[in-house]
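Researcher: I'd like a structural prediction for the single chain below. Treat it as a standalone chain; there are no partners to consider.
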Amino acid sequence: MKIRILTVVLLLTSVSLFSQKNKYLSVNLSGLLATQSDFNLGFGLEYEEQLAKHHGYQFGLNYRCKTDDNYLTINNNDWIVNVRQNYLNLPISYKFYSNIVNFTTGISFDCFLGGDYLTEIPNVEFGKYDLDPKLYVGWNFKLGKAFNLTDKFVLEPELQYNPIFDYGYSFYGANIKLKYKL
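Model: Treating it as a single chain, here is the predicted structure.
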């Protein structure tokens, strides 16, 4: 009899552990700075799944950019040329949920999409801007707070920090995310 009661209690407990399962699709707008860069806007889409009361995961697809000053010598003249580097960011993260603050951390991949010269020099035509390697790996950290707007919509502002390994720069800033409960 004790075994049956224990089995029923364990079964009911395990069902309640997964009763918090929620799925969200979100769009986000970010204002980011990169080390030695100007302020840039980014945007993206994310999928998020809350597996238990305090635990879940998310992954996304984000566009972001950073601007850098590059030093070039053209016709024996030194120039400072401003370049915008465009990236497709793919974060894969664990998310901890709480009533006070949500914490997200995980690996991120930045794929270099190309660059644009923002500085014009008279009588000089720039070639294609390229970087090698094309893939950069980093780690992201986010702190956010979710606010229920309706039964289906949630607004979640976040602070973000994303160092990129081996390349000496980091992205940091703020996101505003509008989540739709699936």
